[in-house]
Design a protein that fits this description.
mainly alpha; Helix Hairpins; 239 residues; 2 domains
Amino acid sequence: MVQQLYDDMRLLAEVQGFDKVIQKLGMEKDEVPPGIVAIRQEIGRIEKEVAEMENELENLRKERRQKERELDEKLESLGKYRAQKNQVKTNEAYSALLKEIQDVETEKFESEENVLVFMERAEELTRLIGEKKGRLAKCGEELVSMEEENKKRVEQLEKELLKYTEERNLRGSKVNSDLLSRYEKIKKAKDGLAFVAVRNNTCQGCFMELPPQVVSELMKRDKIITCERCSRLLYWEEK
């Protein structure tokens, strides 16, 4: 009976060792490499910038078309006013007409300046959008390459996981079913760590110092003992 319990505890320690490795490999497999995270973030940032620039460019084009319509109206007005110069009969009317022409010419000049500013900004935005899209394409290529490498890494980890899981299950199948079931429940509740050594009279799960009587009982290896604080299964670690 004592020998059977000793064998079960030894196998359970091996099962716990495999479970630690399996948990670590699973976390590594699910982890997205920092390089992929960074380049995805950069792609998202560039896409946002391009969308904002394209929106600004579209608004500029609308404003430019509006200013060009206003400019056409000013030119049409100037043509009419200049045609009327030879038709006015009084100095007062002539002066008023000249004032109208001057005002329209000022507005025309401002409209032309606005159209020029819009054109320059549109050219700048078009250039910037082209540069951003070029960088976006390059980032996309880098991301594809990184994801391909990551896929290979994940495949390798999955092979290792399968190997360790098979080894773990083989040992687990030899452990007393009630003890293994108890271990599984504790493992689930304690983030994967259910069976821990006692080292220097201290539980290696919660690091509480155990009473001498508990340590003495553990050293006999004739019954299952759990930690009073963390409820994990304990075993005496031989030097």
